[in-house]
Amino acid sequence: MSLRETNRSMRLRRTGLIPSDTRVRHYDELDEEAQATVRELAGRPQTAPEADDLDDGDVVKFTDYYEVRAR
Amino acid sequence: MSDSYVIIGDGIAGASAAETLREEAPDAEITVLTDEGESLYNRILIKEYAKGKLPEAPISIHQESWYDDHDVDLRLNTVVVDIDVENDAVHTHEGETFEYDSLLLAVGGTPQQLPVGNADAEGIHHFWTFQDARNIKESVEDAERAVIVGAGLLGIDFAAICGAQDVEAKYLMRGDNWWRYALSEEGAEIMHEAMRERGVEPVFDSGVDRFEVDDDGHVEAAVDPNGERYECDFAGVAIGLNFNTELVEDTPIETEDGIVVDEFMRTNVDNVYAAGDITTFNDLILGERAKNGSWGSAKEQGTIAARNMLDYGSDEFEWVSSYSITHFDFPFLSFGHPTLGDDSVEATTAEGEWRRVALKDGKVVGGVLIGDLSPQSAFKQLMREGRDVTGQEDLLMEPGFSVDDLAAATEQQ
């Protein structure tokens, strides 16, 4: 299980701007739990427990570019 | 005296092996030799760079300082010309010799060139390295019309690049649909429509008989076997890889469409291992030899190889791979071995959603999901557990399918 043992939750915010110092991850690089979280959150206004394989500020390439917001 | 490890190749397989060796053997001497001019980068994001969607910097994974920080001797632009397995040494094009206690071959492949006239003309591109991506981006930006050849997972990247750069393209396919070995016409049509929406027109029962060039040797048209002529300023060819086995041709290392390894990533030479695209490995899930070129598989193979280089037999490679296409506003995913098997089931589960599952002896061996990827984890679990789904195949096509939906009788065989 790779969900973090914190109370933080994450959501994905669609983004078109990718600064050069951003860590960009492709869906295929993520572990299965993080992939499931991305599938659940992409394009939807909802949150899920923070995935271990993703950090706040990461950008994920799925069907669009999504910025990870973990709070 | 510490053990020495030489790794040929700094893609994800070689780099993950170097990382694992350093973590688990702090005193080991580790050397990485690569013929490329840059250290590890993200090969699955270079298509995004070529599309003009990403700057260069996020593509890089290991800066050269990473190798210094981890005491790994990285040699860029270094071509290995000979492997001497009797004397545990490799020789480079510049006459250097590197001796090893254990060697890892993570040498990958090279894109195949079409066996037709003018296939090496200027403006005809293959897509494998970051440098290829830079060349493609530059070439596409100056193009108005393109031709794409290769109706598979790599060819569609060219279609997406052309679509993203507003280049009108003809996608010449030999059969009657894209990736016909894994998709029926019904599933492929979803992909065809997405291409058309981006200005890329699939042309079926076609292909390339020859390319025509202008006076400067630059491609100006592709002519298909039917005699149809398609003018182009740019051509993208993705018809497969030649695996770089020539390096071991004069050694006793066994090859069969790649370098043959066991489930521990070891070749038939005791202290020589291989990982990544180059391997023909013993697939414990499929029960036969297999190949896989996905990022996750290569990374895992590199890690497993490193552990077994340190302690043979300590860790097996058992992996269900997957590969997604994220160019469109719906996701596409292939998993396992979707082109293999002796049976299959497929269904349209909702508008724009389609799936196909390949079966062998009643067990899932792979599949394709379009639009709805939610059953991805369940299908992979079925593969890992070797569940026999005979008589319950239709359940696999149900929206919201879960492993729990199968009767208890299908538990692990």
Attribute tags:
heterodimer; A: 71 residues; alpha+beta; five-stranded mixed β-sheet; 14% helix; B: 413 residues; alpha/beta; FAD/NAD(P)-binding domain; Enolase-like, domain 1; five-stranded parallel β-sheet
Task: Provide the fold topology.
The complex is a heterodimer of chains A (71) and B (413).
Chain A lengths: L8 E6 L9 E3 L5 H10 L6 E2 L9 E3 L3 E6 L1
Parallel strand pairs in A: 2-4
Antiparallel strand pairs in A: 1-3, 1-5, 4-5
Chain B lengths: L3 E5 L3 H13 L4 E5 L12 H5 L13 H6 L2 E4 L4 E5 L4 E4 L4 E3 L2 E4 L3 E3 L12 E2 L4 H12 L3 E5 L5 H10 L3 E5 L12 H13 L2 E4 L6 E4 L5 E5 L5 E3 L2 E4 L3 E3 L15 E3 L10 E3 L4 E5 L4 E3 L4 H16 L11 E4 L6 E5 L6 E8 L2 E8 L2 E8 L5 H10 L28
Parallel strand pairs in B: 1-2, 1-7, 2-3, 7-19, 9-16, 10-11, 10-16, 11-12, 18-20
Antiparallel strand pairs in B: 4-5, 5-6, 8-17, 13-14, 14-15, 20-21, 22-23, 23-26, 24-25, 25-26
Helix pairs in contact in B: 1-7
Q: How would you describe what is shown here?
A:
The complex is a heterodimer of chains A (71) and B (413). Chain A has 71 residues and is an alpha+beta fold. Chain A has one domain. Chain A is built from one helix and five strands. Chain A has one helix at residues 32-41; strands spanning 9-14, 24-26, 48-49, 59-61, 65-70. In chain A, strand 4 and strand 5 (65-70) form a beta hairpin. The model of chain A has no long low-confidence stretch (mean pLDDT 91). Chain B has 413 residues and is α/β, with parallel strands linked by helices. Chain B folds into three domains: 4-109 and 242-310, FAD/NAD(P)-binding domain (3-Layer(bba) Sandwich), CATH 3.50.50; 124-237, FAD/NAD(P)-binding domain; 330-410, Enolase-like, domain 1. Chain B is built from eight helices and 26 strands. Chain B has a five-stranded parallel β-sheet. Chain B has a five-stranded parallel β-sheet with strand order 9-16-10-11-12. In chain B, helix 1 runs parallel beside helix 7. Chain B starts with a strand and ends in a 28-residue tail after the last helix. The mean pLDDT of chain B is 96. The chains are: A alpha+beta (71), B alpha/beta (413). Chain A binds chain B through residues 18, 20-24, 26-29, 32, 35-36, 39, 59, 61-65, and chain B through 42, 44-45, 48, 53-59, 294-296, 322-324, 326, 328-331, 373-374, 376-377, 380.
